[in-house]
Write the structure tokens for this entry.
Amino acid sequence: MNKVKPVNYKKEKHRFNVGIGASVFVLTAGLIFGLTGLFFYMDAIGQAAAAQKREETFDPWADSARNGRLSWMTGKIIGLTEEFAADFKETYHYYFAFDEDWYPFIVKMKGALGEEFQPYEDYVYEDGAQMPEPMTLTGVAIPIEEDIREFAIECLNLLYDEEFITEDNFEDYMGVSLLDTTQKPVGRADFSAGAGFAVLGVVFTAVGLLCLVLNIMNRNRLEAEERKVKENMRRVAAWQSNPWDDHQSYEDTAGYDRGTYQENPGYGSDSQIPLGSQGTWQSGGGVESGQGTGGDQTYYVNGVKLTPLKKSNMFLGIIGAIGGSLIGVVLWLGISFVGFIAGIAGFAMLKFALLGYEKLSGRLDKKGAVISLVIAAGMVFFANVLDYVVTICRAFFQWEASLDTVLYVISNFGTLMTDADCWGGFAMNLIIGYALSIWSSFQLIGKILRYKES
């Protein structure tokens, strides 16, 4: 007789209780991280508010790396040139401004200039233009970046029509800092610390909450299964005592598929117990049968263990398939990062999608297998798009590494791909990815499409 180890409901419930405790710990850690991030963020707001109450005169030769954001920096101008540089997103523009002594300094502004700046441009470019009233610009002082320095040298030499500004004497004429009117002073506040702890808080809280819900659901499902099995075994025991009672017939044993009846010597020559279409049925109840140990007993018919068939939860299965296929997306990006063709990761996407569906739904059926296949196919396309987004971001990060750059790339993905003439490579990479994925997963896909419910 092929004995199968019975389900130990007490042990399984203890495992889920441990999971619930661990989930509560992770959830608590997430709340602590979130509160810590909130503390740092509130402190940074206080620092920034204090800095915005101070005001100093902008000095291009002062060290702005340490003190440029401690207060408002103000500069009065009587002239303003056309822009000589702009960032790659055409969001921020750089100009030369002239103070009342006609000394130039660099100003950074957002967007196009308004009409109120026209008199200051006219004063620079038109002969005989009347000097406008001085205008006060406010912002913070930041260091002049290397690429802005190069553009400034080229433009100044054109403006003055002679080659007298060089790398060696640039700081003598223009200083080391520019006036950035697009930012506010923040003092010594560190918003990044608050943001970092806040992200950790969100991640830990989400993971802890998800694990807590799943563990509670699994424990409740296990308890319901235990109650159901005990009730069905009670009915079997009653039927065994009086097998000719129509009210206790095996058709009344809820939750099991009806099947063929087979004589079982262990219950007497007149006792017949249906195997069910699955051929299995398991009990954790207290009905004696001569099999199993303690309170967890296993029942067999001709050596076949009896266990009820689990129903799958499609909603949780889809979540599991998406989560599993995301592991394949990470693998795709990792392979692409080192310069190899990443399509082989499609096989991993499908395998992990199937595994994720089975783990969260409780059972992998044909419907779940097909859903996992569709999700994995969609993730191949998503991974290819994400791969190009990362590539473009890496190229643009040499000018500005920030979240704003990432959002700009995502929102203008199509235009940037067209400008960079990348659609051909994108399509080729996608074709190769699907081809390698199908080739590496051919037998697995065939099994999915031929899979039949038992």
Remarks:
- Residues 35 and 198 are 8 Å apart (CA to CA).
